[in-house]
Amino acid sequence: MSDGPVVSGQLKKFVFRGKSLNNGDTRGDYLEIVIPELLSAGYSFYTWPSAPLLAWYLWSQRKNLRGLRILELGCGTGLPGILAAKCGAHVTLTDSVALPRSLHHLSGCCEANGLIPGRDVQILGLAWGLFLADVHNLRPVDLILASDCFYEPSQFEEVLSTVAFLLDGTDSRFLCAYQERSTDWSIEALLQKWGLKGALLDLDSLSESSGIDYRALVGDRSLHLLEIVAV
Ligand SMILES: C[S@@+](CC[C@H](N)C(=O)[O-])C[C@H]1O[C@@H](n2cnc3c(N)ncnc32)[C@H](O)[C@@H]1O
Fold first, then answer.
1. Which atom of ligand 1 is nearest to 146's Cα?
2. Closest ligand 1 atom number to CA of residue 42
3. Burial 197-209 (b: 16+ CB within 10 A, else e)
4. Pairing assessment for the beta strands 69-73 and 143-147 based on DSSP bridges
5. 90: domain CATH number?
């Protein structure tokens, strides 16, 4: 993973509107998030296709987000976490501690949406599978988020060990969006090893109940929403 030099930049706009699952009320429900993207050597400077999928799901649940303690792992430009913070959650955005330029860019993404790091959102360097003092201070957390953090099989266990530590002894959830890049890859054995269980969310049922066209968001990519809890 590189924190490499910038090649060129662009501003990406995400517009969220529509009814809430809770009461079907659409009035005043509109949110615009802008993400400054840098097309550089690093993965963390632009928004991957899983992130809008997770963000739209959170948007459908927005009436339930206020006051929740939410932690996003490997957040890159942080679209889902930024959305949650705009909806009233207490959000900590994290990315690899080894990528200071990425964390700095993440601060810029927050500021572009009127969120001041240290006041409206917290930003922290957190490497999956490393249990330094900071990680211990992150508990308790109500909801953990991640988008496109299962892209390198050698890191699957690092992600899940961090999640297992944070969920242990709680009824909190880990909600992640991921892109299936190979049907040979599986986290099933690791879920068992770390005392976790997962269930895919059914995008067709979600589309029906929310009015959000998840199939259009997924397009021709194999994107999934997975919810993981401690057993
Ligand atoms: C494919 S990108 C996804 C970024 C963002 N979540 C999105 O969907 O747009 C993977 C992210 O994981 C972060 N990452 C990679 N290895 C990591 C590690 N060992 N610990 C923490 N974060 C890591 C990268 O810096 C990058 O932001």
1. 6
2. 25
3. eeeeeebeebbee
4. parallel
5. 3.40.50.150
What SS3 state is found at 207? helix
- pTM beyond 0.70: the answer is yes
Domain assignment present for residue 27? The answer is no
Domain that holds residue 128: 42-230
Q: How many domains does one find in the chain?
A: 1
Tokens in use for 216?
Answer: 């259009």
207 vs 193: CA distance, rounded Å: 33
pLDDT in tens, 5-39: 555 789 999 999 986 555 555 555 899 999 999 98
- The parts of the chain modelled with pLDDT lower than 50 are none
* Alpha-carbon distances, residue 28 vs 19, 20, 25 (angstroms): 10, 11, 9
Tell me how far the alpha carbon of residue 24 lies from the centroid of ligand 1, in angstroms: 34
